[in-house]
Design a protein that fits this description.
Layout: H1 3-7, E1 14-22, E2 29-30, E3 37-39, E4 53-58, E5 62-66, H2 68-84, H3 99-105, E6 112-122, E7 126-136, H4 142-145
Parallel strand pairs: 1-6
Antiparallel strand pairs: 2-3, 4-5, 4-7, 6-7
């Protein structure tokens, strides 16, 4: 790879995929930095409960949460993708269903991580629901959004000698 190739904008992120079989309830998920809950199939989780969550996306509903600092980038990407593919998307809002295309156009953070939680159920046939939860595990402003006790403290019970 040449130096010029490396300077091109390539979006990369790590995906942790969790697939739950038919009738299996997905596990509750927590922010890897703060330990705060970010997803629960059975309980309400207030968003954003962790300052590191960048987005929550549902495969049928689109974005359930989009952090304010990346909202504009996603809006611009929606417009660009819809304009470039008029046969595929009637409006820019239709692009929300295509998270993969959006992620190719948007920088979602310095250390991006995505939880991908898929669960299967039965309706008139098998149905798969997928929720993506995006994180930026390191931000330049992280100390502004962090409060005391948000996960980076010493483990309770450990002592420095």
């Amino acid at each position: 790879m040449s130096e010029n190739d490396q300077s091109e904008s390539v979006k990369s992120y790590t995906v942790v995929s969790i697939e739950c079989g038919l009738g299996i309830v997905p596990p509750d998920l927590h922010c890897p930095r703060t330990g705060k809950p970010v997803f629960s199939e059975e309980a309400d989780v207030e968003q954003p409960d962790s300052p590191f969550v960048t987005f929550i996306h549902h495969n049928e509903c689109g974005f359930l949460f989009l952090r304010e600092d990346i909202q504009r980038a996603f809006d611009e990407a929606r417009e660009a993708i819809a304009a470039a593919n008029p046969d595929e998307y009637e409006t820019a809002d239709d692009v929300d269903q295509d998270l993969e295309s959006l992620l190719e156009h948007v920088d979602i953070g310095n250390v991006p991580l995505i939880y991908e939680v898929s669960s299967k159920d039965m309706a008139c046939g098998p149905v798969t629901t997928t929720v993506h939860i995006g994180f930026d595990l390191w931000t330049f402003e992280e100390e502004e959004g962090m409060e005391e006790g948000d996960g980076d403290d010493e483990v309770e019970g450990s002592e420095e000698e």
